[in-house]
Design a protein that fits this description.
The chain is of the alpha/beta class. It is built from 14 helices and 19 strands. Helix 5 runs parallel beside helix 10 and helix 13 runs antiparallel to helix 14. It binds NADP nicotinamide-adenine-dinucleotide phosphate.
């Protein structure tokens, strides 16, 4: 019986669970593959201690330096679950160039180094699988890559970050004292948010995932720096209450990738907090859960839902990749070839959406007229307008929703409105899912 040798770099949350799943499923995998998947080596700064805690047999090589896995004889598949970028990049490039297949959960590595990884994989005729890098345990990348082979993928969008979803959804029906800060603390206490949540709250984590999705679908790198990105920190409790009570909507941080396939692929890619109608399936995605909507040319609309992080879901995706790679190896499938598409990124200023705008204006004649005139001059028509008669610190709250408008026009009008002496700088802008 053939044996496929696997090495795991990084014995942290995901690495330890990956090792446990590999060992506990060995018999099942043997039965399904007609081959043995053997854990041959592990690498971690604390490899000896972690290996002992995991009860690994002495035959499993323990290394402190992950890069050594790329040259250890006999390894077929290298699993990179180190996190960070420098050590993972060195390991991934050396492994791929040397003809080893790679499994990684590292969205940061993939989104920043896609071209180099692709070239290294071509050089070594190696494969690279990265299911866990987007939406953790949800098997959406394998589906996009394989199950939709007969389709053009027209859009992939959804809730790609569990921390922000936990915060936004927990504020939906919470007590009057709940704020973004208290919801974040709760998420951190429950283990769903990192100590430093900047990447999550700023939307950058979601942008990296949109970047990975774009690379998978087009074969071309789309660096996160090119993806327009707004986080959730500007949203106030009042916005959520108003959206729920008056607009029958709720905010979700949505990563969006739209693809218009022609001679070149025109891409729209961004991350924005977005008001979703309560009857939309994304509104039912709460707490740390993720959901990815796919629009495919023939399969039409689909939704993938599940846990986007955590050792169990993430390791499940990593081991799924290992299993698929074993099938490829045993079936002698040729290395995946993908001719990178010619891609044009549509400027985000051209992206069209209805908008929600909450402003604070002085309660005097003519102010509303100036606000609506600024929007009107750019051809933006107002859908609803609500003015509260309860003044707040910065003036009277005014909430406008618009019909679909290009972001550039909307932002131009907004700049003009915020420059009015009678309007406070304090404001909230949200997209609205059409
Ligand atoms: N955790 C999740 O829910 C989740 C979900 C999706 C994707 N991911 C991705 O999975 C990867 C791993 O995440 P994790 O949560 O398992 O991280 P983690 O708990 O920090 O584990 C990483 C392990 O790798 C070790 N390590 C890192 N760099 C090393 C180096 N240069 N040499 C030797 N050892 C090194 C770390 O040792 P030290 O602690 O000593 O640094 C640690 O033991 C990341 O790319 C992450 O983005 C995680």
């Amino acid at each position: 019986m053939r044996t496929i040798h696997v090495a795991v770099a990084g014995l942290g949350h995901v690495g330890r669970e990956t090792v446990r799943l590999l060992l506990s499923n060995r018999e099942r995998f043997r039965a399904r593959l007609g081959a043995d998947i053997e854990l041959a080596a592990v690498a971690d700064r604390d490899a000896a201690r972690e290996a002992k805690a995991l009860g690994l047999p002495p035959s499993v090589l323990r290394l402190r330096d992950p890069l050594k896995l790329a040259t250890t004889p006999g390894i077929d598949i290298v699993v990179e679950v180190l996190g960070g970028i420098d050590a993972p990049k060195a390991l991934a490039l050396a492994s791929l160039k040397g003809g080893r297949h790679l499994v990684t959960a590292n969205k940061r590595l993939l989104s920043h180094c896609w071209e180099e990884l692709r070239r290294a994989a071509n050089k070594g005729s190696s494969r690279m699988y990265f299911e866990a890098s987007v939406a953790g345990g949800i098997p959406v990348l394998q589906a996009l890559d394989n199950s939709f082979a007969a389709n053009r993928i027209e859009a992939v969008y959804g809730i790609l970050n569990g921390t922000t979803n936990y915060i936004l959804s927990s504020l939906e029906h919470s007590g009057p004292n709940a704020t973004m800060a208290t919801a974040l603390k709760e998420a951190q206490a429950a283990g769903f948010a990192e100590k430093d949540p900047t990447m999550d709250l700023s939307g950058q984590d979601s942008a990296q995932k949109v970047s990975v999705l774009a690379a998978l679908l087009t074969g071309r790198a789309l660096p996160p720096s090119k993806i327009a990105c707004r986080g959730i920190t500007g949203i106030e409790r009042e916005d959520i209450d108003f959206a729920l009570g008056t607009l029958s909507r709720t905010p979700r941080l949505l990563g969006v990738l739209r693809l218009d396939w022609g001679k070149k692929v025109r891409l729209e890619a961004h991350v924005f907090p977005t008001l979703v109608p309560l009857e939309h399936p994304l509104a039912a995605v709460r707490r740390q859960y993720n959901a990815v909507m796919v629009k495919a040319s023939h399969a039409d609309d689909l939704m993938f839902y599940g846990k986007g992080a955590g050792p169990g879901p993430t390791a499940s995706a990593v081991v799924g990749d290992i299993f698929m790679l074993c099938r490829d190896i045993l079936g002698s499938a040729p290395a995946r070839t993908q001719t990178p598409a010619t891609v044009e990124l549509i400027p985000v200023s051209e992206s069209v959406s209805p908008y929600y705008l909450r402003l604070f204006a002085q309660d005097k004649p003519g102010v509303l007229a100036k606000i609506t005139a600024s929007l009107g001059r750019r051809g933006i028509s107002i859908s609803t307008i609500h003015q509260s008669d309860v003044p707040a610190k910065d003036g009277v709250p005014v909430v406008l929703t618009t019909h679909p408008a290009a972001l550039g026009s909307f932002e131009g009008a907004l700049r003009e409105i915020l420059a009015l002496g009678s309007v406070s700088r304090r404001h909230t802008v949200l997209r609205m899912l059409a």
